[in-house]
Amino acid sequence: QAVPAGSHVRLNLQTGEREAKLPDSENGRSDTREERRRKRYRGSAGLGKVDVDANSFTSQELKKALAKMKESEKAERKVRREFPAQEEEVRKKFRPIEQLKEEFEKLNMKMETDYEIMVKLISKFNSSASTLDEKVAALYDLEYYVHQV
């Protein structure tokens, strides 16, 4: 789960849930939603902090950010050329999803995406033929998949 930078995050050991809290402002009271939106920043690869509000960019800032992006892209390509063995090593460890699907089909196993499973659970919940227990089970399973999203 993505949380704004500077948030306080903890794992509640009693419930097992992760909790996040926005930091209090300097005056001790929590910011309003609008103030938080104005203060929100995203870190970009090597670009430092970039204000999310698109109206606050000047053309010079955009040019500098684009130049830094191009530099980091060139450096990444250089690393790939210098260390092709690392990329090959990763390719050896993992197989493409298409190959995995074909292998599962040979085993008569259908690999379903989370989306497909969620659609089935929703149709089971909406079905008039489903019992109350089946609907409750569908809701619990759906809660699990929605929580992941």
UniProtKB/TrEMBL annotation:
GO MF: adenyl-nucleotide exchange factor activity
> What species does this protein belong to?
Onychorhynchus coronatus
By its UniProt entry, which InterPro entries does this protein fall under? Hsp70_NEF-Inhibitors
Keyword set, alphabetical order: Coiled coil, Endoplasmic reticulum, Protein transport, Transport
Bias class Basic and acidic residues marks the residues at: 16-35
- PANTHER family documented for this protein: NUCLEOTIDE EXCHANGE FACTOR SIL1, PROTEIN FOLDING REGULATOR
Could you name the domain of life of the organism this protein comes from? Eukaryota
Tell me the protein's name: SIL1 factor
Q: Where is this region: Disordered?
A: 1-45
Q: Which GO terms describe its cellular component?
A: endoplasmic reticulum
- UniProt GO BP: protein transport
Q: Which residues form a coiled coil?
A: 62-117
